[in-house]
Amino acid sequence: MKFLMIPFLMIFLISCNVRGQEDKLIRNFITSCKDKNIELATVREQYICENKDNVDKKTALDKFIEDGISSIREEIQSKDLSKLSIVKASNDIKVQKEFLETDFSKIFVLKEKQKILFYFLIENDKITAFNVLNKGGIKVFIKLCN
Q1: Distance from the CA of 136 to the CA of which of 3, 20, 61, 98 falls in 20 to 30 A?
Q2: What torsion do the CA atoms of 95, 98, 103, 105 make, to the nearest 10 degrees?
Q3: How confident is the model at residue 50 (pLDDT cuts 50, 70, 90)?
């Protein structure tokens, strides 16, 4: 029986650690966004994935990302970050119904009480998307890189 418990315990600890890394990434991103002393380009470089395939449009994409970060910065200036929670979409049936995505293990929601502030798509330890399009009640991420 002990031999069966050890693999389950290890899987549980690994999944908790992964969840912790994603939470930490989002919390650090939000904290950096709120800090007006940190330049938008620095936040982008540190937390957002980099699109290496489309070098020609890099300037326009960087501007789009920085405008998004600026919007987040404005939205959270009056918020107490300690009162915000991060919920994994795989644990929230309501959020799952809103998306076309099927892999909810990569989707996270930043909430203030029950109000959703932002959605995040995390891949390869970077934020791949934080903007969504709402088309007929269905949300689709605007991915920032491949």
Answers
A1: 61
A2: -20
A3: confident
